[in-house]
Amino acid sequence: xxxxxxxxxxxxxxxxxxxxxxxxxxxxxxxxxxxxxxxxxxxxxxxxxxxxxxxxxxxxxxxxxxxxxxxxxxxxxxxxxxxxxxxxxxxxxxxxxxxxxxxxxxxxxxxxxxxxxxxxxxxxxxxxxxxxxxxxxxxxxxxxxxxxxxxxxxxxxxxxxxxxxxxxxxxxxxxxxxxxxxxxxxxxxxxxxxxxxxxxxxxxxxxxxxxxxxxxxxxxxxxxxxxxxxxxxxxxxxxxxxxxxxxxxxxxxxxxxxxxxxxxxxxxxxxxxxxxxxxxxxxxxxxxxxxxxxxxxxxxxxxxxxxxxxxxxxxxxxxxxxxxxxxxxxxxxxxxxxxxxxxxxxxxxxxxxxxxxxxxxxxxxxxxxxxx
Length: 372
Fold this sequence. Notes:
Elements: H1 2-15, E1 23-25, E2 28-31, E3 35-41, E4 44-46, E5 52-55, H2 57-75, E6 85-91, H3 96-117, H4 122-126, H5 129-132, E7 137-141, H6 146-159, E8 163-165, E9 181-183, H7 188-201, E10 206-212, H8 215-231, E11 235-242, H9 248-260, E12 266-270, H10 273-285, E13 292-295, H11 297-301, H12 303-307, E14 321-322, H13 331-346, H14 352-362
Parallel strand pairs: 3-6, 3-7, 7-8, 8-9, 10-11, 10-12, 12-13, 13-14
Antiparallel strand pairs: 1-2, 2-6, 4-5
Helix pairs in contact: 1-2, 2-13, 3-6, 7-8, 9-10
């Protein structure tokens, strides 16, 4: 029953509160409950040094979707009677190191909660109201990308905590060793099949690939190579892999390599959204406007990143194609999101630190009185 409720919650997050006092910081948003669900969400992208940098509007949408889903569950008297769900949302900035630090904190909190429930600590509990509030992390939603999910899933597997992702698509996560991992999206082999169908439709026979140097990128390219081997209709000329940190120099060399292969006009991109934008910026700097790009789902879903490019760079992506998961509009969530966005201008909301970054990125400051 619990796993089904978590899947419901994760489905809502992929589309995109009874509020009590909680904890809010730059990288954490916590609201207590009888049962606590953790979350690892990308609210910032990483820069070349692996530090949090550009704000992600999509990440804020995921936070609000989780708030909305939990509020909906808490308000429904037929789902969890006399039980309130809480949440502990962490921003990991697409950094596997930060994701693991947050995950270790989740696991450690569970160990402490277990200790305080032990009979040896009954006496201490009676005199410590703060410790009475300890509730273990029952499941974790996320992380956003497969590279982080591999590491997080391994640790949570040992701790026997379910991990439910709304966007981690690597086939590696289908392995039996990740028996505590669940997801609401299909694995990348199906995405590779769709890409191969597009390549065949246009009779492209020679393609290259640029991918993340992690489970998402390498397993995605491997699936595409498998399709090429089965069909014998196109050839994968070469694949370049981009590291998650210290990637600027590698991007420059990758574009130079693509330019040197003048017979390769189609490039498959299995990149996270922020890395794709920087690749296009480098391609524009090197005057490479004659390629057709095929985006993986991560880049297609991250259209906001392409809008951050300077106008003179955007010509690089003209004529590109992308694979996108089928999605559905949830009108009552959209209504909720509009109300939350307006409220964030009028008052200090619990997630105010992130909303402030959103408005700073989207538009010049607006006086709250204009929205009353």
